[in-house]
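Before relying on records like the one below, remember that each one covers exactly one chain. Contacts with other chains, cofactors or solvent are not represented anywhere in the record.
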Amino acid sequence: MSKITLTIDNQVVEVQAGATILQAAREAGIEVPTLCYHPDLSLHGSCRVCVVEDLKSGRLLASCVAPAADGMEISTRSARTRQARRLNVELLLANHPNDCLSCDRNGSCELQDLAYKLGIRRENVERFAGDKRDLPVDERGPALRREPNKCILCGRCVRVCEEVQGVAALDFTGRGFDSMVTTAFDMPLSEINCANCGQCAVVCPVGAITEISEIERVWEAIDDPDKVVVVQTAPAIQASIGEEFGLPAGTVVTGKLVAALRRLGFDRVFSTEFSADLTILEEGYEFIGKIKEGKPLPHITSCCPGWIKYAEHNYPDLLDHISSAKSPQQMFSTLVKTYYAKQIEVDPEQIFTVSIMPCTAKKFEKEREEHRDSGYQDTDAVLTTRELARMIKEAGLDFLGLPDEDYDQIMGSVTGAATIFGTTGGVTEAALRTVKEVLTDEPLERLNLGIMGIREAEVEIGDRTYKVGVASGLANAAQLLDEVRAGTSKYDWIEIMACPHGCVGGGGQPLPNDKDVVVKRAQGLANTDKAKAIRKSHENPDIIRLYKEYLGEPMSEKAHELLHTTYQAR
């Protein structure tokens, strides 16, 4: 492509033709503030926070949508530019609750940061005093909370839901003062096709969409002397929670995570990686059974509850293709209130199970009526990575100063295969490590599926080549599913994760949650897998023991009773 040259703040900048002024500025190391702009979404240009001055025409331009042109002379710092930015932010704040001290996004709010950087004071905002929106909060969840009075109409949530997830559960309605972002007919999120993935909360620059917090319920359980509070931590957490305490993205802090949970008062601390290994055994042998019995393929994975709800709404005709194996979260919780309760001789009614997840959809999953195979609600509470960080800070723990500690035992052994569940493609690689070795006694070569978009691979198992498809982000998933529906799919195995890049990019992860960050988290998990002494699920000694003492064998009647589930058209 041809290149153009322009001047930005007296600096000559050369960029590819077609670049926006914002892109040109950032390539030159010149920072321009933004609010409605997001690098992974379509351009919107609504907030006007990114305005710059075209010195030749005298016009103020929204740099995120204005194309750079050859010979332009741009100022990002002129008096007019600074005044316009301040005015635009002041107008946003004039219709904002300004309850920063009690907001979940306090300290990670882009509007708050902009107000500080632009030097905006209370008196600047009060001159625009007038009516404010007084709309009801939607917290009929169970996963996500919408607070429309905080919405700044940037449209990020609308765009991510439509463009990245292909769900389109949110849209603009009304005009002028009555403009708002809401669902069809203003229905609660719990009653529409929302996948509960939380990507809207990830891209929201303020606190208009957040997870429904269960922190107080967990504190109450911890403080109850009659409760045995058992916690499990998802694989992705160990490579992300450190960001909440100033560590670089991808820093693995497993030992400090365990230590923190013990000091918060949890009675037993386990890793969901244990039940991820168990999932591989159940789902892997389910796949083997389909092959041997000649059942219709592709086999589609079932670990992600956001994907499952999306399928129930949009692809009910394909539910038979989806594995009946529960997610690792639900397998673990079921076993805690059955197998583990017997091991420690505690009444299951006394056990309160908590999951630490990178995912908001897990809050929805735990409430499903299908997940009560223990005789109780299997998972009692789900905390996101962000919620756990808030608890650690509330307790005054010096996270970085904590010693490294190990998970509790009986259900404590984990493998590298389970660790990579935290990134898209990981479930596939982990499962096929076991499937290939069970069928041929030959190890699986590294698949290198990566973490972006749609990926595929071919795996030689015996005398047959199996085609594998992996998709993250529901819009990408739809491409694969439409082929299955049409009967043109070439795949034998399909893995789907609702969140772009998998659990490392989950809706409950620390912010920012951009592409560079999630790639580093994924690399942290990959390095952990490589360093593990045992890297195959079927070699986990505690899993072997579990089958010997309790379940019998993969896909046994007992395993089906406790570890498998059903789905429903919605």
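The chain is about 35% helix and 15% strand.
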